[in-house]
Design goal:
mainly beta, Methylamine Dehydrogenase, Chain H, 0% helix, 47% strand
């Protein structure tokens, strides 16, 4: 997954503001029912078949799975960070599995400096990786670096941006247009203060060419202007690229802004204010399997700082022309300002995923033109989850994968699956169990999916494994979990 913390285990996407894109739109996530008192509608529990796991790596090491994508021709690309046996910096590695193959190619080291945040996007039959690192080591990332996979080979890593003296680079976003143009965006500012002024900067690389010089697309409001969350990037069906971000303008308030660049243009629009209110909701991008309509979702805070407030949903099919539809809705029960990841389907339904105060994975949906969220559904059943990843295939099958602690210290991977037009099904992924699990999932065509994971404190500690699923059958739902 993109958009994660760097701690071990599955990494969640923080949100509050979110931008979602989908092609002609593909159904993503549906919802069921629940209340803030934990009375829920359960997803169906049935086993889901996975192929026999195959090793991606053979030697054990301390590894953290970062990203996983499928390209247009079915090539699988996995990224992970790996710590050397001796004390040293985390390096970034990649492995590729060709279409129709069962074995993965030899790992390729992409970056050797201390790796911080990592992004990966499919670009046609290839892919582009983007990461921040600290060449001198430490906790401050001062460089943004990229490498690309094309024709089966990785390019050499090239710098995209370098921080100015006393600054750090953080929380990059990455998106690719249908014509192969790749856009990166990131935060740039002084690291010593949470409220220190920070800028949103961006660079673009055409399908065949080099990265452009970085430009600043945000504007300071005052000396307090801070940037919260990730600078998110998406592409709509007309090829317009959008960057959405959240900017603090005081100790209590923030503003949601967007900038756009039309297809074929090199010029970004001025920042457009979408909302100003309480709270500091970070921007998060949830994107469908291809460019399409966009949804911008954010939650307003409250003066009492309890996290409660209305959820706003804006939609557009042409981001350059604006966001003509904005709905103000009551928050789903149990959201309370917690990080939530939105999804958008072809029918215009927006679905939220988030974890509550009991570390349960919850979801609720807002159908197109509706002004009320569905009752909340609990996907997880264990007392605690360590994070989640979500992906949707081109046929609309949605896959969610998370680590669930059931008996300490053992963990297991659990999946929720929703075929297009169907109901959620939930089951353990029997191929993957053990302590210290860390995993990513990507949904492919025909209801299939691919997962890559590692686990610690086992005889094969740190070895990366991969398994593919079989198509998901349509299953009628039932209720009863509480």
């Amino acid at each position: 997954m993109s958009h994660h913390s760097t701690a071990g285990g599955l990494r969640t996407l923080a949100s509050g503001l979110a931008l979602a894109a989908v092609a002609a739109a593909v159904p993503l996530l549906a919802a069921g029912t629940a209340t803030a008192h934990a009375r829920t509608t359960a997803a169906v529990t049935v086993p889901q078949a996975w192929a026999e796991p195959a090793k991606v790596t053979t030697r054990t090491a301390v590894r953290d799975v970062r990203e996983l994508v499928l390209t247009a021709d079915g090539t699988a690309v996995a990224l992970w960070t790996q710590r050397p046996a001796a004390a040293g910096a985390d390096a970034l590695y990649a492995a590729v599995r060709r279409p129709g193959a069962t074995a993965w190619g030899a790992p390729r080291r992409l970056g050797a400096a201390q790796i911080h945040e990592v992004k990966l996007v499919a670009v046609g039959a290839g892919a582009t990786a983007l990461w921040t690192d600290a060449p001198g080591g430490g906790y401050t990332a001062t460089r943004l670096v990229s490498a690309s996979l094309a024709g089966g080979s990785w390019s050499a890593a090239v710098p995209v941006a370098t921080a100015r003296a006393g600054h750090k680079l953080s929380r990059p976003g990455l998106a690719a247009a249908a014509d192969g143009t790749v856009t990166a965006a990131w935060g740039d500012g002084r690291p010593e203060s949470y409220a220190a002024p920070k800028e949103v900067r961006t660079a673009t690389r055409p399908a065949s060419g080099r990265w452009s010089a970085a430009v600043t697309v945000s504007r300071p409001v005052n000396s307090y202007t801070g940037l919260y969350g990730t600078a998110q990037v998406a592409v709509d069906r007309r090829g317009t690229t959008v960057i959405a971000y959240t900017q603090a303008d005081s100790e209590e308030s923030s503003r949601v802004l967007t900038v756009t660049r039309r297809a074929g243009s090199r010029t970004w629009s001025a920042p457009a204010l979408r909302f100003r209110g309480y709270g500091r909701a970070p921007a998060v991008l949830a994107e469908g399997p291809a460019a399409g309509s966009l949804a911008l979702v954010w939650q307003d805070g409250s003066p009492d700082h309890m996290g409660h407030g209305p959820v706003h949903v804006a939609t557009t099919a042409d981001a350059a022309a604006g966001w003509p539809v904005v709905r103000r809705t009551a928050e789903p029960e149990g959201l309370a300002g917690r990080p939530a990841r939105p999804q958008l389907d072809r029918a215009g339904t927006v679905t939220l995923l988030w974890t509550d105060g009991q570390s349960r994975l919850l979801t609720a949906a807002l159908p197109r033109a509706a002004d009320r969220w569905s009752p909340v559904e609990a996907l997880s059943s264990g007392p605690s989850i360590a994070g989640y990843d979500v992906s949707t295939g081109p046929d609309g099958t949605a896959r969610v994968l998370w680590t669930e602690r059931r008996t300490f210290p053992a963990q297991e991977l659990v999946q929720a699956v929703r075929p297009a037009g169907g109901r959620w099904t939930v089951a353990p992924m029997r191929a993957a169990a053990g302590p210290g699990l860390d995993a990513e999932v990507v949904a492919g065509p025909g209801g299939r999916a691919l997962a890559v994971w590692s686990r610690q404190d086992t005889p094969d500690a740190g070895t990366l494994w991969a398994a593919g699923s079989v198509p998901v059958p349509a299953v009628a739902g039932r209720t009863g979990r509480s």
